[in-house]
Amino acid sequence: xxxxxxxQSLTVLVIYPHDHPDIAFNxxxxxNYLGTYGTQxxxxxxxxxxxxxxxxxxxxxxxxxxxxxxxxxxRAALEQHLTDYPxxxxxxxxxxxxxSSAYSSxxxxxxxxxxxxxxxxxxxxxxxxxxxxxxALSPARIKELSFTLPPTWRVxxxxxxxxxxxxxxxxxxxxxxxxxxxxxxxxxVARIISDISLPQIRNDIRFLTGEDGKSxxxxxxxxxxxxxxxxxxxxxxxxxxxxxxxxxxxxTGFAPNVVCRYPSTENTTxxxxxxxxxxxxxxxxxxxxxxxxxxxxxxxxxxAIARTxxxxxxxxxxxxELVAFAGEEQGLLVPxxxxxxxxxxxxxxxxxxxxxxxxxxxxxxxxxQLGLPxxxxxxxxxxxxxxxxxIYSPELVVGFTPACCSDHQASPxxxxxxxxxxxxxxxxxxxxxxxxxxxxxxxxxxxxxxIADPMYxxxxxxxxRTGYDFEQLKSIAKVQFATLxxxxxxxxx
Length: 493
Ligand SMILES: *[C@@H]1O[C@H](CO)[C@@H](O)[C@H](O)[C@H]1NC(C)=O
Ligand SMILES: *[C@@H]1O[C@H](CO)[C@@H](O)[C@H](O)[C@H]1NC(C)=O
Ligand SMILES: [Zn+2]
Hints:
GO terms for molecular function: metal ion binding; metalloexopeptidase activity. The protein has helices at 2-8, 27-30, 89-96, 101-104, 111-114, 145-148, 170-181, 187-193, 198-209, 225-240, 296-312, 337-341, 379-392, 470-488; strands spanning 10-17, 33-37, 40-43, 61-65, 69-75, 125-128, 132-137, 153-157, 244-248, 257-262, 270-277, 314-316, 319-325, 349-356, 369-373, 397-401, 416-417, 424-426, 441-444, 490-492. With 493 residues, it is an alpha+beta fold.
């Protein structure tokens, strides 16, 4: 009787390589998507579909109790010389600590699925590779993860209800291709973007990191009160540039997203989104999280763009949204792209999105660079950004990076409420790609290679240090700005 009940509440999960050709043709998958994490896409086909999934080495099939909260852990792509924590199932179990006895019996595997799991499977671990793991945890444990797992491991909370997998529609891609094919140097764009102020960027970053000694900001961790100080400050700064801004709280106690908008001068629903994340993460056991590079650099770049829009009197033909996300580093929450790209706005016309995440650091002795996503992102948008970089910031060496997965993969899924308690269980797992939600998107990053910043997710991530290159930050901000100007269309007032 008990067994029957248990099995009834088991859910089947299927994990595919994100670009697996079968996905698009299988409604059992496309209608039951749980997001893309790293290079893997997770699906939860309904029982009626379950028989059509035979586990293979490539595509594991996992049974899990439906009450479990699923969490994806992804080891960041770091340069080899950076020290990292061993990513074994043993070390994962060690960091996760003893499983609470109240929860230990509430999920299980069935015999069949267990024998297909290759790695030694622990109590929490459903699936494990050398760079990622899928965990089942008690929902109560989710908040502590960003304090208990090593800071170089990214944590993503999966939504508890599936949503449709939507490839970027062909017309949206065709629109980007059109922009790319007609792209040519515009001296007006060059003049406007060169007005980005480096001294202003230095000032702004020192405020956000607390290096200036005036802001009093110790940390911009999403749970910290200083993150709210940063949010308020950003809102006021963006508003000074003529934008209309809102602080969008997605959960009590967490820093809000700062969502700003410049209205279009033409009657259009087209919207171009540029973004960064202002929350940060420090070292194990330290309350200091200055986030000077991750992602104070992208956030300050965004602010520098806004300040230049004001100084130059730029108006846009399309709608323009500038968003500073929170919850990025805490993985669970996350950018409420739902309201920014839209609830009832699924039909909203998002031409494209460019997220800037970590744009200031390169190894000493290396040239300034621009890293574009090798794996995730819309190839056409990535190509557009690469070509714009060649035109307007030729000093940047452009290449691909495996460091992946920021808000450009953000999800427009709504918060999930527990059916009985009405408690909010998960919010938006930020890694359910924009890309797979039908929006053309890409990311700009600091290096044509893995993460090399020795202060990645470290309390030493300040702006005044070797390898932190303000010129590169400005060059990449120019690329993001030029993309915005070319795609949205503009006039000078
Ligand atoms: C983009 O840049 C590449 C490399 O320079 C070039 O071959 C290609 O023609 C450009 N694409 C367009 C549409 O201009
Ligand atoms: C704007 O465009 C929409 C749809 O094309 C149209 O229905 C509406 O009347 C237009 N509004 C104005 C002010 O021109
Ligand atoms: Zn980041």
